[in-house]
Amino acid sequence: MAIDFETHPGLRLAARHSADEQTRVRIGAVEIGGGEFTVIAGPCAVESHDQIRACAEQVKLNGCQILRGGCFKGRTSPYSFQGLGSKGLELLALAGAEFQLPTITEVLGETVLEEIENKADILQVGARNMQNYSLLRAVGRSRRPVLLKRHMSASIHELLSAAEYILSEGNPNVILCERGIRTFEHETRFTLDISAVPLLRLKTHLPIVVDPSHAAGRSDIVIPLALAARAAGAHGLMVEIHPDPGCAQSDSAQALSFEQFASLCSLLRRG
Ligand code: PEP
Ligand code: MN
């Protein structure tokens, strides 16, 4: 792969400076950006003990590495399910501990940062918070790795500049996440910007994870998008799964059933 040695003055920490530079983010025994392709999976939102436990069991059974689950949800409507909050965080931590899976959940704002730092392994900054500079600085001072999602209307340069905020506060463990951008297309919820993957590989040393679930907004095309993301050079995936997708309290249309999830994992194993 040709390497872009260009460095932007505003991206002194996020930009790639040499061909072999690659950040590997370690979370216990898991490494994102190393040789192994990483799969992060779990429900959009933690809904109950049984639901998150069932998801964690599937994540483990299918050989995936990290359990996701939203606890403090930022929803488009204030009247939609907002997540179980602190209770959800406890259930997520419990399921992670039972199946020995590191966990990731979204930090919706600075007020919940300390609580999440104490209970989850990776901090997720949601797409809508990508340019919340005080939150970026706060997670930059955290001891926890950060998964930074690209805003649906942010350029690649803006995503890297947001990562720079976190890096500049001293946290080197930043994972970038492409999760779809807004276009004129409405068959899908967003449009997965597959170009972002090889472009980011050229421009930065930070690991890149693709979230085909929020990009698609519909479960029937998540698997091909996930395979395309890996083929394009992503270091990992983040996918939403649910024991009963039709009954999910958030993002029901895009959640993979356990059967679909197992089939995705078997396709990934086949290489
Ligand atoms: C999520 O992953 O839970 C989420 C809300 O995604 P995004 O921030 O990309 O919309
Ligand atoms: Mn979701």
What is the number of helices? Answer: 9
Helix content: 25-40%
Which stretches of 5+ consecutive residues score pLDDT under 50?
A: none
The major beta sheet can be summarized as: 8 strands, parallel, barrel
Quote the distance from N terminus to C terminus: 20 Å
- Strand proportion: 5-15%
Small-molecule binders here are: phosphoenolpyruvate, manganese (II) ion
Mean pLDDT level? 96
Secondary-structure element order, as H and E? EEEHEHEHEHEHEHEHHEH
SS-based class: alpha/beta
The spatial strand order of the largest sheet comes to 3-4-5-6-7-8-9-10
Instruction: Work out the number of β strands.
Output: 10
Features:
binds phosphoenolpyruvate, alpha/beta, globular, two-stranded antiparallel sheet, eight-stranded parallel beta barrel, binds manganese (II) ion, single chain, 271 residues
